[in-house]
Design a protein that fits this description.
2 helices, globular, single chain, four-stranded mixed beta sheet, alpha+beta
């Protein structure tokens, strides 16, 4: 599935709270969500390769899966 990461989510990756979370971690997490997501939903408990825990807010659109934001723990 095509994963689209918003500019807002990319900007948040530069914040301290999301430190050591990469775009590859976000793509892997969003591809790991089964089924279809008709409305923006928060998914919790993903781990980056660095070991940092994070949540993502995602929604399915016609061109793929849109990752709206990333929340580091």
């Amino acid at each position: 599935m095509n994963v689209i990461i918003t500019e807002h989510a990319r900007k948040r990756l530069r914040d301290y709270r999301q430190d050591k979370i990469t775009v590859a971690d976000i793509i892997a997490a969003s591809n790991g969500i089964p089924g279809r997501i008709p409305t923006a939903t928060r998914f919790r408990g993903f781990f980056a390769k660095s070991g940092r825990m994070f949540d993502i807010v995602a929604k399915d659109i016609s061109s793929g899966r849109l990752v709206i934001t990333v929340i580091g723990k």
